Amino acid sequence: MKAIVVDDERLARNELKSLLSEFPNIEIIEECDSAESAIIAVDKLKPDIVFLDIHMPGKDGFGVLEELDYMPHVIFVTAYDEYAIKAFDVNALDYLLKPIQPERLKEAIDKVKEEIIEPVSLSDKLGLNNQVFVKDGDKCWFVNLSDVPMFESEGNYVRVYFNGNKPLILKSLNNLANKLDEDVFFRANRKFIINLNWIEKIESWFNGGLMVKLKNGEQVEISRRQASKLKEMKSL
Question: In terms of pTM, does the model score above 0.90?
Answer without folding.
Answer: no
